[in-house]
């Protein structure tokens, strides 16, 4: 006698967990690719400011992604509903403002502290859900949250004596709070009928527009914007950012997150620093050979093994049937 087939909702949830994990891998890939892009651009334009290069690359990344979606959707772009416009603009506002607070906060605090505080959304989300729903998260999610917090602490190499609430820490927490709003917006029933591709057609250009004020203020000239892409390497690296780290990652997030809870999504996204650290062990060497820049691999450390192990254990537990209530016959 064969076992009954899994319910359709359970199958969709497992597919969603795998798809969001793949999206997190693409986001992790963006760190070494973006680093190599900035190094390649600095060679083409020595002395260019980091804010100029960063704002230009982010604006180009989301701007070209939006153009590709506009070409792909064609005449369907004229069928955008009011709620698709609303959700796309809200997501862009949360994401764009979150990135700006995170980037500015990094200038006033240690990178390890920023990495730890950025993942605070894995705590913010269940707290918000508990306040709104007036009930605590399930035991399984509570264990996963504890594992992730401990893992990020190890991964960041955070010293308890270094923790203080200055400008950098406050801005990083504000950025994480804004990322929380971005994740929760994808769960709102108000937007359940929205088409993910059409909504993303609004979101990507709006994200690019958020970077324009910074770009206008920091750009040495209009010609400088073209000069830093006047070679095959930065063009190829930008193409990878657009296709994989933007279109691939965000479309997967916008489509599949609806099939899991916001708390589960936040826990999966905490894999990003782990995967980024693993890629940094070997990927910079390949990128430096191809792009002609000096970008050394990072070393395997106990922090990566301990922190990455705890976060990976949390995600294995999350995607397993352990500690879940038994399905009714």
| N-to-C CA distance | 15 Å
Q: Output the helix-strand order.
A: HHHHHHHHHHHHHH
Structural class: mainly alpha
Shape: globular
Helix content: over 70%
Main β sheet profile: none
**Poorly predicted runs:** 1-5
Please report which band the strand proportion falls in: under 5%, 5-15%, 15-25%, 25-35%, 35-45% or over 45%: under 5%
Count of domain modules:
1
Average the pLDDT over all residues and give the rounded result. Answer: 88
Rounded to the nearest angstrom, the radius of gyration is: 20 Å
Helix tally?
A: 14
Q: How is this structure best described in words?
A:
This protein is mainly alpha-helical. The protein has one domain (13-42, 50-318). It is built from 14 helices and no strands. α2 runs antiparallel to α8 and α12 crosses α14. The protein is globular, with a radius of gyration of 20 Å. The two termini are 15 Å apart.
Question: What would a concise description of this structure say?
Answer:
The protein has helices spanning 8-44, 50-73, 82-106, 111-118, 121-133, 139-156, 167-185, 196-218, 222-227, 232-256, 262-269, 272-279, 283-291, 302-318. By secondary structure, the protein is mainly alpha-helical.
Write the layout of secondary structure elements.
Elements: H1 8-44, H2 50-73, H3 82-106, H4 111-118, H5 121-133, H6 139-156, H7 167-185, H8 196-218, H9 222-227, H10 232-256, H11 262-269, H12 272-279, H13 283-291, H14 302-318
Helix pairs in contact: 1-2, 1-10, 1-11, 1-12, 1-13, 2-8, 2-10, 3-7, 3-8, 4-6, 4-7, 5-7, 5-11, 6-14, 8-10, 12-14
């Amino acid at each position: 006698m064969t076992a009954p087939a899994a319910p359709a909702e359970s199958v969709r949830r497992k597919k969603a967990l795998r798809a969001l994990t793949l999206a997190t891998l693409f986001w992790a890939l963006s760190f070494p690719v973006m680093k190599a892009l900035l190094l390649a651009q600095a060679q083409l334009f020595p002395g260019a400011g980091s804010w100029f290069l960063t704002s230009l690359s982010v604006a180009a990344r989301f701007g070209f992604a939006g153009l590709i979606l506009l070409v792909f959707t064609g005449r369907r772009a004229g069928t955008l509903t009011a709620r698709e416009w609303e959700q796309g603009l809200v997501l862009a506002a949360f994401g764009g403002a979150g990135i700006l607070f995170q980037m500015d906060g990094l200038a006033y605090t240690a990178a390890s502290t920023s990495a730890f505080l950025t993942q605070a959304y894995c705590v913010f989300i269940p707290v918000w859900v508990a306040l709104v729903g007036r009930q605590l998260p399930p035991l399984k999610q509570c264990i996963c949250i504890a594992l992730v917090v401990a893992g990020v602490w190890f991964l960041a190499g955070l010293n308890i004596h270094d923790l203080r609430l200055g400008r950098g820490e406050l801005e990083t927490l504000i950025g994480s709070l804004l990322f929380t709003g971005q994740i929760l917006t994808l769960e709102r029933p108000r937007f359940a009928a929205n088409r993910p591709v059409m909504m993303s057609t609004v979101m990507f250009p709006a994200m690019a527009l958020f970077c324009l004020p910074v770009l206008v203020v920091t750009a040495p000239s209009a010609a400088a914007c073209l000069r830093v892409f006047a070679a095959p390497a930065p063009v190829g690296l930008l193409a990878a950012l657009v296709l994989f780290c933007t279109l691939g990652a965000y479309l997967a997030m916008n489509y599949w997150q609806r099939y899991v809870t916001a708390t589960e999504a936040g826990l999966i996204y905490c894999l990003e620093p782990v995967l980024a650290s693993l890629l940094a062990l070997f990927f910079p060497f390949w990128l430096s050979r191809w792009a002609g820049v000096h970008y050394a691999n990072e070393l395997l450390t106990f922090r990566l093994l301990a922190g990455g192990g705890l976060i990976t254990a949390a995600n294995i537990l999350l995607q397993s049937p352990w500690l879940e209530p038994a399905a009714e016959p």
